[in-house]
Amino acid sequence: MKHASGFTLVELLIIIGLFTILSSFAVINLIRPQTKANLDATNTVLISDLKEQQLKAMIGDSGGSAPSAYGVYFETNQYTLFKGNSYSPSDTDNFVVSLQGDASSTTTFASNQVVFNQRSGEVAGFSASNNTITITSSGDVKTITINALGTVNSN
């Protein structure tokens, strides 16, 4: 009598199970850098927008208007760039920026807004204990701090 060569059903199921587990680890490790890159990109865009609003407050909008206060209003999944001493949701000149992916933001600034004074670019109503913006995405966190002069730092 000849012995049939090959694999049994149990052996095949074990190999398929091991392959599935190893593949899932590979996929997780490929997705993680993309999530971190999205958080980094969101952080970079927000810092750029903060600096742009400060610059507009210091020299005036590119349309040749006189300097005015400019600011950023924060919500959980978006922020709004606005002109003036405080955020007004009915202002049609507001520009809304949505955060990428599952990113969310929180801030310690009063009224969820940071306003840059005209000409000086300093932060209006600055409080050293209320000067951070936190962006969270998939467990990763980026913190942005702004000092009284409007200098933006991120870590």
Stated plainly, the CATH topology is called minor pseudopilin epsh fold
Give the SSE order as H and E letters.
Answer: HEEEEEEEE
Q: Which residues sit in consecutive blocks of at least 5 with pLDDT less than 50?
A: none
Q: CATH homologous superfamily?
A: minor pseudopilin epsh domain
CATH architecture: 3-Layer(bab) Sandwich
- Give the amount of beta strand, in percent: 25-35%
Q: What is the approximate shape? A: rod-shaped
The number of distinct structural domains comes to 1
Strand order of the largest sheet: 3-2-1-5
CATH class: Alpha Beta
Summarize the amount of helix as a percent range: 25-40%
| Number of E-type strands | 8
Summarize the biggest pleated sheet.
4 strands, antiparallel
The value of Rg in angstroms is 25 Å
- On the 0 to 100 scale, the average pLDDT is 91
Structural class based on helices, strands and sheet pairing: alpha+beta
Total DSSP helices? 1
Q: Can you characterise this structure?
A:
It is built from one helix and eight strands, in the order H-E-E-E-E-E-E-E-E. The protein has 155 residues and is α+β, with helices and mostly antiparallel strands. The protein has one domain (10-154): 3-Layer(bab) Sandwich (minor pseudopilin epsh fold), CATH 3.55.40.10. It has a four-stranded antiparallel β-sheet, covered by helices on one side. It has a four-stranded antiparallel β-sheet with strand order 4-6-7-8, covered by helices on one side. A hairpin with a 3-residue loop joins strand 1 (70-74) and strand 2 (78-83). It starts with 8 loop residues before the first helix and ends with a strand.
